[in-house]
Structures are given as structure tokens and as C-alpha cells.
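Issue 218. Parser rejects a valid record. Input:
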Amino acid sequence: MAERPALVPPLVIVLASPRGFCAGVDRAVHIVERAIEKYGAPVYVRHEIVHNRFVVDSLKAKGAVFVDELSEVPDGVPVVFSAHGVPKSVPDAATARGLAYLDATCPLVTKVHREAEMHHAQGRQIVMIGHKGHPEVIGTMGQVPDGAVLLVETVADAETVAPRDPERLAYITQTTLSVDDAAAITAVLKRRFPALTGPRREDICYATTNRQAAVKTIAPSCDAVMVIGAPNSSNSKRLVEVAARAGCARAILVQRAAEIDWDSLAGIGRLGITAGASAPEILVEEVIAAAGTRFAVTIEEVTVTDETVAFKLPAQLDG
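Output the parser choked on:
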């Protein structure tokens, strides 16, 4: 570690809690690790298991091979589907080829998949609130036939979406959305379509909700908020937006300590730190250590709730 200058400014680091890994991400990472232990390397993974380069690189070092499509997986080796979920066509194609596969889809995403199937089976058209092109959205829309789902990304979309029958309409959401944005979009849909059917329990997952609530709590008292996460991580990008809306204009997203522009943080006294649901705690510790070479750091931790959720591994990995 580099020596700290003799005269260093003080810095209070305000740690938001909960932060970092959620139960679904933890399960997905353990599925890959356990598969490597059980079957030996290589174990193939279709798409990034979670949206975090550090996690992906760590699993590569253990024997995971990441591919974009199932066609890149050779015969006779196991393949893992990412935590974001996949269209039905993917496991169907794996089965047709005789590939052994492990589904690391977060159980809370699977819940949304089942909702989509149920609504379609009951004759409802579906409005999905989510981000076009995100793997979770692609996977969810792929649970039902093409055209069964209308994608809505914004309030403006909600004002103009045109279902075939407003009396037979349901909505579902991506699990990693901004809670406030989703509520605003849902309010428009409910106003326009009073017969709209929604989920019995919110689709936005507990981890997304809790991390956003923690950031809202710390942001007003911080000079800057740093979200540790990947630029392709939906929940991490939403945390940056939430921090800015909650009163901290200097909200930034970083992947690792090495990419932080410390000069841009000169003069701040309180730095809020959180991590997206796919970012491990070791990256938070790395950032705190880097700050300690430049500032006299004091740590405050602000906890809005304790998380006790855990998910079981697939039955194939037992024993």
C-alpha cells in the first residue's frame, strides 16, 4: 500500500447497508463454483453469470468458460444459464442437444416468468415494465409467444401503449428497476386501464428495494455517493439515479478502485458508498483501502434493514 502524505484531509465514508451481493447473485455464483467442483473444468456459462467483471474473471480463473450463445458450448459438457433468466427456447435447445444444464435464474425472476405464463394462459395481454435489451427482459418476454408482451420503458410509453383489449390486460416488471420510476409508470397504466391486473406481490425484488432505500437514506447527508458496480448492471445504474434524486448531485458509478478519479472528489467531507447487487464486498473494501491512502478515513454505517433471504442450489448439485 502506498504511503499516505503527512497532511491528509479527513473523510467520513458513509456505508449504505444493505449493499452488494443479493441472495440470487450469491446462489448463481455458488452454482458455477459447485458445478466446477462436481463436474470438473471447464463448465460453460451462457452470458455473464451476473453483471460484474470481477466476479466473471474470478470464475474464469476457476474453470468457467463464458459464451454468448448455446451454439458455442461443445457437446458433453455442463452449461449454466445466468441469473438473469433465459427464454424458453434456450433450455429447449439444450435438451434437444442432450446438454446437461443448470439454471441459475434468480428465483425472484422465475416468479415473474411464471406470472407471464399465467397471464398468457388466462388470455391476458401483458405489459412488461423494463429496459429493452436487458437479459432479464429478453428472458421474461421469451416465456410466452412473440407479441404476447408489450414492453414499456417510460411514463411516456405508458401514456401511449395500445393493448388489443384494455379489459384483458396485466402488467409485470423487471426485478431491478427504480422503485419510484416503476411506481410512476404503473400509476399511468392503472389510470388508463382500470381493469389492469398486477402481481400479488411486487416484482421488483427485495434486494433492489432495500439497496435503493439505503441510498435514499444516506444521499442527502453526503457530498458525493459512489456506487460500486458494472456499467451494464441495471440495479447499479438505478442506485446512481436514486442517489442523485435523493439530493446528492455527485453520484458516480465505478467498477474498481483503480478507476476512481480522486481529484474529482477533492474537498468533499462525506462520501457515501454502496454496491450493486452483483458487486462483492471485496470491491467495497478495495475502495475503502484506496481512500485510506489519500484521506484520514472514518467509517459510518447506516443500516435500513437486515437481509436474511437465502436460496437453495439446484437438486443436481446436491451430494
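Fixed in the parser; the record now loads. The mean pLDDT is 95.
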